[in-house]
Amino acid sequence: MFNFNNFKKAAVIASLGLALTACGDKDNKETASNDGLVEVKLGVVGEHNNEWKATAERLEKEGIKLTLVKFADYTLPNRALNDGEIDINSFQHVAYFKSDCEEHGYDLANVGNTYIAVMGAYSDKIKSMDELKDGDTIAIPNDPTNGGRALKLVERAGVIKLDPAKGYIPTVRDITENPKNIKFYEVDAGNTPSLIPDVAVSVINSNYAIDNNLDPLNDAIFSDVTGEIDENNPYINIVVAKSSNKDNENIKKVMKAYQVKETAEILLKEYKGSQIAAFKFE
Amino acid sequence: MVDLLKGIIPNVVNKPDELLESINQTFYMLSVSGSIAFVLGLILGVVLIVTRPNGILENKFVFSMLSYTINTFRSIPFVILLAALIPFSRMIVGTAIGTTGAMVPLVVGTVPFFSRQIESALSSIDSGLVEAAQSMGSSPLGIIFRVYLKESIPHIVRVTQITAISLIGLTAMAGAIGGGGLGDFAIRYGHQRGQTDVTYVTVLVILCIVAFIQSFGNLIIKKSSH
Amino acid sequence: MIKLSNINKTYYRGKNVIKAVQNVNLEIREGEIFGVIGFSGAGKSTLVRCINLLERPDEGGSVIVDGVEITKLTSKQLREERKEISMIFQHFNLMPSRTVLENVLYPLAYRGIPKSEQIKKAMSLLKLVDLEDRIENYPRQLSGGQKQRVAIARALASDPKVLLCDEATSALDPTTTQEILALLKKLNEKLGITIVVITHEMDVVKELCHRVAVMENGKVVEYGDTFSIFANPSCEITKRFLRATSNLSKIDDIADKIDLNNGEVLVRFTYIGKGVSEPVLSSLTSQFSVIVNIIFADVTLIGGNPIGGTVAILSGDKSDIEKALNSLDSRNVKVEVIRRG
After folding, report:
1. Which of A106, A166, C27, C324 falls between 20 and 30 A from A256, CA-CA?
2. Handedness of CA A165, A171, A176, A177 (dihedral sign)
3. How far apart are CA A63 and CA A111, in angstroms?
4. Could you tell me the CATH number of the domain that includes residue C13?
5. 8 Å CB contact of A195 and B97
6. C337 in contact with chain B, both atoms CB, cutoff 8 A
């Protein structure tokens, strides 16, 4: 007869067993695997990771097996890293990293730059931001991060001045100078490309630009990533590890293998110029 | 007094002009798209009633085509409709952005719903009344105005109230194309930036609008019920 | 006034073919009150709607009203023609959001008549139906009889030649029914308007109609003047209708229980012809020395002629009784011996 008590006992033992094996794996980062390579787990989001695949090939020669662990959305990789399930992750920019750690109390550290995704100003009416006339309209994304970034872009183009105290997430209310009386329309980020005909300029994230057959390198009349990338630009994407692991030798090797010319070329080719290498290389 | 308000609802007190503008935008969207949707929805609802099987202007083709089109549009989530109608908006009102650009999607999002409401209101008219009007030599147009519409006034007011309040909800989504309005104001500051006092105040204002629509409508219903 | 020829009405519901009206031919004379009686589903409502074309008869049917072939009119012409043929309904069909006066004004609007004229006419009609003190009331505030009177006033507003009444009294109580029937009779006499009455109540026909058609399953099974149909029904269905209004059949239930002395005869007399004005039964006594003991009688007048009959026990000399009974043959009285004692 089915004895529920026995079943309960068996269930408890089974789960304890599973927990133990899980714990065991956590601390075994340095243990050699079957083929003599050291495994480093890298958390990513999405399907576009060819530059990491190329990096992994280079690392095999140095005795490191770089394993990509794919996550379904942005809220998971930092938590997984914090819990020790992965060793490093690469999916976020500095601004998101700062706010996510603050919100959840993670103890994580930036171990190196990867790329920066471009934001650009597009227009079907003018060829340069200087051509903006009095009373023209500009469409920007309506969420805090992207909207703030768009305003900083417009400021960078010399059209407006923003309250410096608001840092990288200003709102339209923080415009201190607007000599051309530009009217800003705050719209859903995904709609910024389709509304180009209705405004003088539309500020568009690179991924939405590409989805709408726009070329960030050649079609944008202004970009917020030009020439030297400011080290303090909060939109630089980074690789992150646990603070305690910051100086780990293997992680340093991974970063060195990534930050090379080949990676920059893959980024340029794969993302049609919307993702630019944010590290120095020969 | 101002200090008290500053303490309770600081994020509203520091941008009263934007709150006021949102209210204006909502009113503008409600009144213009509301009026247009009312007229179009009324016409389509009447067409449905008269062309249906055994209707006074029975027309299987028109009825099924209209029904099918209405069902299709009603199945499209409004956020998607907003984006999909951008080119069409441009054609009709010259722009797809801002409060003006929101008019076309708001009308297209409301008319199918309202026409079904009108159809339902008019179908509750006793068929005997229509027969009596026919036997007295009324033309189809005469029956539409003098029987269907005139005898359904309380019912029509009621479904208009329902639709108007649903329209308020739609205007909240107009922010996706820069339409502004109270809903967008609450979303951007209250939801995205965590300024919950903004949310409370916005809800309060919308509540006042809803209450007004209800009372005003009820007054008309009372006056026209016998 | 109205000539219906070869009227058929067929409905198609999916695979079912329903013949609501089959091969009906009727003529309704100007100024008469014509009844159409039948049970529910007999097709009478459909038939009457063929007269003002609320239902269109099948191809081949002809409806001629005052010389005009209705089936061949354009929509516009039909609407004009409908002003000559008014209709009242079982459930009145008054517009609920309009007052009594506004309801009567309905058919008068949009015809180029000045408003003051319209009101004058409406008021005179409301006076005719005795409702001038209720002009500001709404239908909701009226009784059934009052509503039907408003409906009649409304129907008369366009000065029609024909008034169609579809079960007009079926929703009213007996007293109110009588009032409405009296009103219709008065209008027929005063205005000379031709009235077509649809009903399932024989009493209505008895009270009101000059001639009547009996319908069953879409067909007209009998038609003629009311008296003849009542006096001499030929179809089973007509007899069923009559039995419903007559007491005479009750004798069949109690016939066996009546005590008859030797030589007495239990007889049922039925009046079958017009002109039975002489006191038939008392003449049996005076002429033939037969004592007539009336058990019960059910006699009404249709158009001034008595219809119905008497059940009586005759007693007296056997040969006298026979002679008496035989004499009645020539006097339009049907004799039926139920039992002999």
Report:
1. A106
2. positive
3. 20
4. 3.40.50.300
5. yes
6. no
Q: Which of B133, B138, B151 sits opposite C96 (nearest CB)?
A: B151
- Among C191, C212, C245, the domain-final residue is C245
Whether residue C161 lies within 8 A of chain B, CB to CB, comes out as no
Percentage with pLDDT > 90 across chain C: 51
Q: CA C150 to CA C157: how far, in whole Å?
A: 11
Report which of residues C108 and A45 the model is more confident about: C108
The verdict on a CB contact (< 8 Å) between C86 and B135 is yes
Does residue B5 form part of some domain? no
**Is the residue at B195 inside a domain?**
yes
Residue B14's closest CA among B25, B6, B23?
A: B6
The tokens of C207 are what? 């009270």
* CA separation for the pair B50, B144 (Å, rounded): 8
Length, in residues, of chain C = 341
Give the structural domain span for C90.
2-245
pLDDT tens for B89-138 read 999 999 999 999 999 999 999 999 999 999 999 999 999 999 999 999 99
Residue B166 lies inside a defined structural domain of this protein: yes
C31 CB near a chain B CB, below 8 Å? no
Counting the structural domains of chain B, the total is 1
- Hey, which of A83-92, B158-167, C39-48 has the most confident mean pLDDT? B158-167
Q: Which of B127, B136, B146, B149 best tests the C interface by mutation, with the highest count of C CBs <10 A?
A: B136
SS3 at position A203: strand
Contacts of C287 (CB under 8 A, 6+ apart): C324, C327
- Lowest-confidence range among A152-161, B9-18, C194-203? B9-18
User: Which residues, at least 6 apart from A93, have a Cβ–Cβ distance to it below 8 Å?
Assistant: A116, A117, A234, A235, A236, A237, A238
Read off the pLDDT of residues C263-321 as tens digits, 9 standing for 90 and up: 888 888 877 666 555 577 788 888 888 888 888 777 777 766 777 778 888 888 888 88
* Shared-domain flag, residues C199 and C331: no
Residues A112 and A8 in one domain: yes
Report the pLDDT value the prediction gives residue A27, as an integer from 0 to 100.
46
Alpha carbon distance A60, A75 (integer Å):
30
Q: How many helices (H) and strands (E) does chain B have?
A: 13, 0
Binary contact (B128, C91; C-beta < 8 A) = yes
Structural domain containing residue A54: 4-117+235-277
Single-letter residue type at B185:
F
Does residue B135 sit at the C interface (CB-CB below 8 Å)? yes
CATH number at residue A263: 3.40.190.10
* Residue A230 belongs to a domain: no
B213 located within any domain? yes
CB-CB under 8 Å, C106 with B136: yes
Indicate the number of domains in chain C: 2
- In chain B, positions 145-184, which contact chain C (CB-CB < 8 Å)? 146-147, 150-151, 153
Chain B CB contacts of C91 under 8 Å are 126, 128
Q: What are phi and psi of C225, to 5 degrees?
A: -75, 150
Say yes or no for a CB contact (<8 Å) between B83 and A197: no
Chains touching B by CB (3 or more pairs below 8 Å): A, C
The Cα B36–Cα B40 span in angstroms is 6
- My answer on whether C69 and C169 are in the same domain is yes
Is the CB of residue B37 less than 8 Å from the CB of residue B107? yes
